[in-house]
Amino acid sequence: MAQLGEFGLIERFFDRPLRDRNVALGIGDDAAIVQVAPGCELVLAVDMMVESRHFLPGADPRSLGHKILAVNLSDMAAMGARPRWALLAGALPAFDESWLDEFTQGLFGLAEAHGVALIGGDTTRGPRNVCLTIAGEVPAGEAIRRAGAKPGDDVWVSGTLGDAMLALAALQGRTVLDDAAMSSARRRLDWPAPRVALGQSLRGIASAMLDVSDGLSGDLAHILDASGVGAIVEVAKVPRSAALNAKLAGAERDVALEWLLAGGDDYELCFTAPPARRDEVIALSNAEIGLSLIGTVTSDAKQLVVLDESGTPLPSVPRAFDHFA
Amino acid sequence: MAQLGEFGLIERFFDRPLRDRNVALGIGDDAAIVQVAPGCELVLAVDMMVESRHFLPGADPRSLGHKILAVNLSDMAAMGARPRWALLAGALPAFDESWLDEFTQGLFGLAEAHGVALIGGDTTRGPRNVCLTIAGEVPAGEAIRRAGAKPGDDVWVSGTLGDAMLALAALQGRTVLDDAAMSSARRRLDWPAPRVALGQSLRGIASAMLDVSDGLSGDLAHILDASGVGAIVEVAKVPRSAALNAKLAGAERDVALEWLLAGGDDYELCFTAPPARRDEVIALSNAEIGLSLIGTVTSDAKQLVVLDESGTPLPSVPRAFDHFA
Q: Where are the alpha helices (DSSP H) in A114-215?
């Protein structure tokens, strides 16, 4: 069993029965074959997560299996696409049965919840690295892009921001949280919930959208760049947890503002929509995922202004996380 | 420039103009959008290459850029599919402009030769690792799978086998080659030429097919497993270079037989076809890529018999490379 080999490993851990009639051929050949629904375009994205960079050595394998799919599902959500199929490539330092058991529990738990079929992959030995490609469908012409925001549009964000970075800071001893706050923040860091249904519901409503993975300020700047517009955002309206709110009101305000505006790993949706569609957006807000109106699109090309609680523009806006900065 | 950042890096090195009218949205959004041709199925595969495992530290970045695409194109060839779109994820220990320059030269050189568009990706810092996902098209129902070989079918292989492992052995000092033989063998190791056109030409002719990436014996065994058949293969008929042939005739015969039958990294096509189609197969053989008839499919389920030059079955068949063995 310790010498299961690559093919045995794939068969045992990854080759699950598929209930997807559009998969003509799954794991076990040189490539997989699927049928894209008539009238749909194909939507493709890939994300790689590296040990010590995106997750700590010793991280819970179940959360890692969940997260590598979640970040990709979040990209599908951000396009308004329906996720369908995934391919997983991974490097592991050694064959580790219990690690793989737990990793696949996390991966398939989320995959099944979203009706995503794992149809292919590649496994090798090497420094721990997981790389997932997601393929989804969207009715032709209906994907929600980053370009499309118009001056006067509302700026919206789902859920709350900043808790994943708050959890990381606490884990690294840079701040202190009580047990309840820590548990809740860690859930945001380790078990992000991609807004897949919300993303699809926003087709025909949102004028531009992306997911907040590198931090609100930097990600919103991508919408502004792509759309050739600016925006004014009010800090007071940016949704946050009670724990992060307490930090914002206290001695750690500066760093808390960074977590809120530029922390990243949020996997919430940020989108723009005409004010005329405001009732429809509000109708999509619910107890599980709130939607917050945080600002307005301006004609001031590519200029992001962030107002503090007194209405004064921040002299400098915290910037997004950059893997190569 | 040394601090170009992830977004600058992607824009500068990877975001090339696309001439593909079926790409609705390329690099620069949360995901790419493409249109699969009507009547076609979508074919998907992924391969990951890790430093020290699939390539040596200090390996030529141009060859690496070529090879990570080549191994994926070879998977498309093995299905009889037309490769269309690629997504690249990569981890690099540090931002290195000249490395990226050379890597992308190799990558885009091969991509342009095959009309493949790079439509998305992800870059991060970490131990060097490149992961490429390929998407291609095949007329619905016409992909060539591993299952489908019938007793009595011919077994064919393209090109020559074993030279990539011969080159690696020479690089590692396990054997000696003269300059001309070394140069030719290294070309097979570093610059594999995927048999993309050949693969598509075999649609409707081959009954089963795969590409030889892990070694002939192990890969052919996958066809036998999937098809529920056996095969007899004659060593004398397995195509090899003059350099490898010399090793097979000399004191290094045993290890040379391993390179030939189980070396891997060949990226040739191995396929079965009914004897009635033999003239059509031969017509596809040309000066650039020869096709060799190496054996026959038998009804002896999953049994691979390899006959030596005297017609005697090898007591044990060298087995394929396994990343987790």
A: 163-171, 179-190, 196-201
Look at residue A325 and tell me whether its pLDDT is greater than 80. Answer: no
Using CA atoms, how far apart are residues A75 and A69, in angstroms rounded to an integer? 10
H helix or E strand, kind and range, residue A110: helix A97-113
How would DSSP label each residue in A122-133? Answer: EEEESSSEEEEE
Q: Identify all chain B residues contacting A33, using CB atoms and an 8 Å cutoff.
A: 41-44, 79, 138, 143
Q: CA–CA separation, A175 vs A284, rounded Å?
A: 35
Partners of B298 in the beta sheet? B230
Separation CA A86–CA A134 (nearest Å): 5
Report how far apart, in Å, the C-alpha atoms of A34 and of each of A85, A208, B39 are.
Answer: 9, 29, 12
pLDDT tens per residue across span A233-283: 999 999 999 999 999 999 999 999 999 999 999 999 999 999 999 999 999
Percent of chain B with pLDDT over 70: 96
pLDDT at B288: 85
Q: What domains does chain A contain, in order, with CATH numbers?
A: 6-139 (3.30.1330.10), 154-307 (3.90.650.10)
Distance between A303 CA and the closest CA of chain B, angstroms: 18
Contacting residues of B for A194, CB less than 8 Å apart = none
Distance CA A271, CA A207 (A): 7
Q: pLDDT tens digits for B198-215?
A: 999 999 999 999 999 999
**What are the CB-based long-range contacts (under 8 Å, 24+) for B218-221?**
B218/B262, B218/B264, B218/B319, B218/B320, B218/B321, B218/B322, B219/B270, B219/B320, B220/B155, B220/B270, B220/B304, B221/B302, B221/B304, B221/B320
Spell out which residues of chain A touch residue B125, defining contact as CB-CB under 8 Å.
50, 53, 323-324
Starting at the edge strand found earlier in the chain, the sheet holding A82-92 runs: A117-125, A82-92, A129-139, A40-50, B32-34, B23-25
The Cα–Cα gap between B88 and B122 comes to: 7
Average pLDDT of every residue of chain A: 93
DSSP bridge pairs for A25: A33
Window from A14-18, A28-32, A225-229 with minimum mean pLDDT: A14-18
Do B46 and A6 lie within an 8 Å CB cutoff? no
Q: Which of A52, A89, A145 sits opposite B29 (nearest CB)?
A: A145
Cβ contact (<8 Å) for A29 and B79?
yes
Tell me, what's the pLDDT at B324?
52
- Record: contact A6-B226, CB cut-off 8 A: no
User: Cα A144 to the chain's mean position, in Å?
Assistant: 15
- Predicted confidence (pLDDT) at residue B3 exceeds the cutoff of 70: no
What is the per-residue pLDDT for A284? 96
State the nearest Cα–Cα gap between B215 and chain A, in angstroms: 14
Q: Is the pLDDT at B299 greater than 60, yes or no?
A: yes
Q: What pLDDT score was predicted for residue A253?
A: 96
Binary contact (B124, A6; C-beta < 8 A): no
The Cβ of residue A151 has, within 10 Å, a number of other Cβ atoms equal to 15
User: Strand A154-158's sheet: what is its strand order?
Assistant: A208-212, A268-273, A154-158, A291-298, A230-234, A304-307
Q: Which two tokens stand for residue A247?
A: 């930090």
Instruction: Sort A261 into a burial class: Cβ within 10 Å, 0-12 / 13-18 / 19+.
Output: buried
